[in-house]
Amino acid sequence: MHHGRDERPVVTHSEPVSISRETTFERDLDAKRDRAQLSRILTQLCEQLAADLARKGYASRTVGIKLRFEGFRTVTRDQTLPEAVQSAEELVHAARLCLKRVDFDARLRLMGVRAGSLVRQG
């Protein structure tokens, strides 16, 4: 019989595995027609993510994107980088490399950017 006892010490702090930002659009967006708006949204997400990384003292070796299309199909792509990055510009560049590997065959409902393989900064 199990009594639900565990003699291991309780760990109250753990290092994050990843940090992400995402947004759901007010209306589904078309990858071609709404390209400028999607580009602005990607940049904003990366700026927010860069601020989160800096505030928490991390840089990222892996940048990933998450896209949800109409019909709720979700696609993710990751890009592993040679060096850990923290700036919005570097995050945007890596996220755009991920986007090039997606077939945009439907309208977009959600976009997210994730920083993974986190490395503590100074």
TrEMBL record:
One of its GO terms (cellular component) is cytosol. Keywords: DNA damage, DNA repair, DNA replication, DNA-directed DNA polymerase, Magnesium, Metal-binding, Nucleotidyltransferase, Transferase. It catalyses: DNA(n) + a 2'-deoxyribonucleoside 5'-triphosphate = DNA(n+1) + diphosphate. It comes from the Bacteria. GO terms for biological process: DNA repair; DNA replication; error-prone translesion synthesis; SOS response. GO terms for molecular function: damaged DNA binding; DNA-directed DNA polymerase activity; metal ion binding. This is DNA-directed DNA polymerase. The lineage of its organism: Bacteria, Pseudomonadati, Pseudomonadota, Betaproteobacteria, Burkholderiales.
